[in-house]
């Protein structure tokens, strides 16, 4: 007859106690998520501030370029009114150089603004990706770590139920890396003590049976003692046909 509790666990069943494991895994993920959210807010504000400064610099550069163009136009008109061709040529060269410099400054500022905006989007994308990846990793780690605690507890509970029915033969051990080894060792010492006590009782029962046979006890009494002995021995020798592995 197969063990009715054997199918309840499998070696690859990571959620042995879903309520306990998911509770503490959720707490772990929640704390880390809160810290990441706080850092994300700080980094996001910094990135937004840099983008705002870049926008302001671009606006100022555009305004400076417009003012330069207006001033250049007014200067040209004034020189034209003077009728001095040589002065007009010199002024035109200077004004053209000034306009080119203002346009170059504007393009540089606009390029910096585009780079800052790209960096800001990249930062937010990295934060989102890192948050999702870290959440997944922490969830897996939380389930794995709590399984190392829940697995031994579940195994000890199952073995306690078995010992409670009088079956004192325990051959199972914890998996490598499981926690609560001291508790499991204490449980094993308890089973060994119970087996020693049961063995002593069987020896006492055997002596009683021999005395009963020697004194001519009734067959009914002897049969009852033999049945009792068989039940006691059964707890020391019987093994389940199928054991579940946590």
TrEMBL record:
<keyword id="KW-0472">Membrane</keyword>
<dbReference type="InterPro" id="IPR003660">
    <property type="entry name" value="HAMP_dom"/>
</dbReference>
<feature type="transmembrane region" description="Helical">
    <location>
        <begin position="24"/>
        <end position="43"/>
    </location>
</feature>
<feature type="domain" description="HAMP">
    <location>
        <begin position="147"/>
        <end position="199"/>
    </location>
</feature>
<keyword id="KW-1133">Transmembrane helix</keyword>
<keyword id="KW-0812">Transmembrane</keyword>
<protein>
    <submittedName>
        <fullName>HAMP domain-containing protein</fullName>
    </submittedName>
</protein>
<feature type="transmembrane region" description="Helical">
    <location>
        <begin position="122"/>
        <end position="145"/>
    </location>
</feature>
């Amino acid at each position: 007859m197969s063990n009715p509790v054997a199918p309840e666990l499998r070696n690859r069943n990571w959620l042995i106690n879903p309520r306990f494991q998911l509770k503490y895994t959720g707490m772990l993920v929640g704390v880390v998520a809160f810290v990441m959210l706080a850092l994300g807010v700080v980094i996001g504000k910094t990135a937004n501030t840099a983008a705002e400064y870049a926008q302001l610099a671009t606006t100022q550069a555009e305004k400076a370029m417009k003012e330069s163009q207006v001033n250049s136009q007014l200067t040209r008109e004034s020189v034209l009114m003077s009728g001095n061709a040589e002065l007009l040529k010199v002024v035109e060269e200077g004004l053209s150089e000034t306009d080119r410099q203002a346009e170059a400054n504007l393009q540089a500022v606009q390029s910096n603004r585009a780079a800052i905006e790209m960096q800001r989007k990249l930062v937010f994308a990295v934060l989102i990706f890192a948050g999702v990846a870290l959440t997944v990793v922490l969830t897996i780690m939380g389930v794995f770590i709590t399984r190392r605690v829940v697995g031994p507890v579940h195994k000890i509970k199952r073995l306690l139920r078995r010992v409670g029915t009088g079956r004192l033969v325990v051959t199972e051990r914890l998996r490598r890396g499981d926690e609560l080894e001291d508790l499991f060792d204490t449980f094993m010492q308890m089973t060994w003590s119970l087996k020693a006590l049961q063995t002593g009782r069987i020896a006492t029962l055997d002596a009683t049976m021999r005395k009963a046979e020697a004194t001519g006890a009734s067959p009914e009494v002897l049969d009852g003692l033999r049945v009792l002995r068989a039940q006691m021995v059964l707890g020391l020798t019987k093994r389940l046909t199928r054991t579940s592995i946590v």
